[in-house]
Amino acid sequence: MAQYDVIVIGSGPGGYVAAIRAAQLGLKTACVEGRETLGGTCLNVGCIPSKALLHATHMLHEAEANFATMGLKGKAPSVDWKAMQEYKQSTVDSNTSGIEFLFKKNKIDWLKGWGSIPEAGKVKVGDDVHEAKNIIVATGSSPASLPGIEIDEKTVVSSTGALSLPKVPKKMVVVGAGVIGLEMGSVYARLGTEVTVIEYLDHITPGMDKEVQRTLQRLLKKQGLDFIMGAAVQSVDTARGKAKLSYTLRKDDSSHEMDADVVLIATGRKAHTDGLGLADLGVKMSDRGVIQTDDQWRTNVPGIYAIGDCIPGPMLAHKAEDEGMACAEVIAGKHGHVNYGVIPGVIYTHPEVATVGVTEEQLKDEGRAYKVGKFSFMGNARAKAVFAADGFVKLLADKETDRVLGAHIIGPGAGDLIHEICVAMEFGASAEDIALTCHAHPTWSEAVREAALACGDGPIHS
Ligand code: NAI
Questions:
Q1: Bridge partner residues of 157 (DSSP)
Q2: Is 145 helix (H, G, I), strand (E, B) or coil?
Q3: Where are the domain boundaries for CATH 3.50.50.60 in the chain?
Q4: Ligand 1 first shell, C-beta below 6 A
Q5: What share of the chain in percent tops pLDDT 70?
Q6: Is 441 a catalytic site residue?
Q7: Closest residue (by CA) to atom 40 of ligand 1?
Q8: What is d(CA 16, CA 109) in angstroms, rounded to the nearest whole number?
Q9: For labelling, which of 77, 194, 196, 266 has a CA lying 20 to 30 Å from the CA of 227?
Q10: Phi, psi of 135 (to 5 degrees)
Q11: In the predicted model, is pLDDT for residue 1 greater than 90?
Q12: What is the domain class of 343-454 according to CATH?
């Protein structure tokens, strides 16, 4: 029986980062993972493979839409789906093997198999029981289906199945206009699939800035995605590899049906905490299996910590990574900290969407005095040069102090641009601080500066 200072259960972005940080801090560390490869959902069947498909299909779209205008003549590329899948898999493989390398470099033992906690201080993997002074549960989340709808990963798929369909479907229905639905819907729409998104609410991407929601939906419609809003999906029947989906419209309770080759269920994810023995140990969890922790990621059972998608908060890889690092630091006797007010969210559609901090709607609800600085990418020379002038940067600042409170960007490189604002918020900067910072020309980041200028005396280019 091996003895460890820390055993992390789960090797996703939360778990592997926690393990690396714990090892860097001198703790004898192991990480339990039952998949064939490290990296969890994100690297194997989530963020990374979806980015490969989004990139490949974006290139296809660029070739079809803009190459001729730029003087790049010739036949538009055709799609070899098998080769695209191989490219996706090689991207995954290089990332998962990279984590394996980092484990070796940091002398972290990979305990292969599915772990459980028979008692505090012990982790069982297969027939072996290992001792650990501290256990970090980082078991992530799994797709949540709808009542009565079975995901077979063939005709009715989760994001996992959607990444590896045997062929490009003719007709796909996406249930849920959240992050997964819009990213995967974009991939298939660009490949020529007829994509219909069915959403329960009257708007897409719940919780996001309303102007961003409207702009993104308009731009996705232009790209060929069809939307049925305010619709509750009732059932999906499958026969001979086809699906029949029924839904009711909330406005008049009318019932409708729709056929599809593939139905993607993208209605959220649930904490993955079954089978760990947590309930028997008395670890406090919500009715939905979400582990409750204090602000140092301690559960109510001494020596057991939890991070990432299996605790409350946004289900985002980078939130899990931050918690993983901070939790390892707490275990090592340091002061791990996560600033939950500055966690960016990105949707990798085209254009990208990125958001951090509060929304205007939240500020209104709270009755706070605020300023809005908005700048359209139409006024950004670089964006115009590369057919990316759709969208805007919207910066929110406190009316009195000018302190940056949040930002919502839809446009080119939004997922990278947002980090300037994250850093500004971490440092308690004002909009004027951003406005007074020299931004290289011509870059998309000038739109961020212009939005900051719009919080003061006004932008130059609009
Ligand atoms: P989501 O919570 O983002 O969106 C689910 C959508 O489904 C919502 O709009 C909801 O109103 C709708 N919905 C729920 N029940 C419905 C019904 N019966 N009929 C029609 N619509 C219904 O969930 P999603 O997209 O599945 O993503 C799961 C998690 O994974 C999220 O927390 C997301 O943040 C994370 N994720 C993040 C990514 C990123 O950061 N780029 C990429 C993929 C996932």
A1: 264
A2: coil
A3: 3-143+270-338, 156-267
A4: 146, 175-181, 183, 198-201, 206, 232-233, 266-269, 314-316, 346-348
A5: 100
A6: yes
A7: 346
A8: 11
A9: 77
A10: -120, 130
A11: no
A12: alpha beta
In the block, residue with structure tokens 């340091």 = 334
Quickly tell me which residue has 């990208």 as its tokens: 352
Closest CA to 349 of 217, 203, 260: 217
Pairing type for strands 128-137 and 122-125 reads: antiparallel
Mean pLDDT of the chain: 97
The 10s digit of each residue's pLDDT in 123-177 is: 999 999 999 999 999 999 999 989 999 999 999 999 999 999 999 999 999 999 9
Q: Which residue bears the tokens 């191989």? A: 86
d(CA 215, CA 16): 37
pLDDT at 409 over 80: yes
- Nearest ligand 1 atom to the CA of 348 is 41
Is it the case that residue 415 has pLDDT exceeding 80? yes
List where CATH 3.30.390.30 sits in the chain: 343-454
* Whether domain 156-267 has CATH 3.40.50.720: no
User: What's the CA gap between 291 and 303, in Å, rounded?
Assistant: 14
Which tokens sit at 86?
A: 């191989």
pLDDT value of position 76: 85
Average pLDDT over residues 348-370: 98
- How far the first Cα of the chain sits from its last, in Å, is 68
The Cα 200–Cα 301 span in angstroms is: 39
CATH of region 3-143+270-338, choose from 3.90.1150.10, 3.40.50.10260, 3.50.50.60, 3.40.50.150: 3.50.50.60
Q: Which residues sit opposite 130 in a β-bridge? A: 123
Place of tokens 């996406």: 174
- The Cα 147–Cα 195 span in angstroms is 23
Give SS3 for 49: helix
Read off the pLDDT of residues 427-458 as tens digits, 9 standing for 90 and up.
Answer: 999 999 999 999 999 999 999 999 999 999 99
CA of 199 to the centre of ligand 1 (A): 10
Nearest to residue 16, comparing CAs of 40, 47, 41, 35? 40
Angle at 142 (CA atoms; ends 139, 143), nearest 5 degrees: 170
User: Which residue's CA is the closest to the ligand 1 atom numbered 41?
Assistant: 347
Q: Name the residue among 372, 348, 347 with its Cα closest to residue 358.
A: 372
The amino acid sitting at 5 is D
- State if pTM tops 0.85: yes
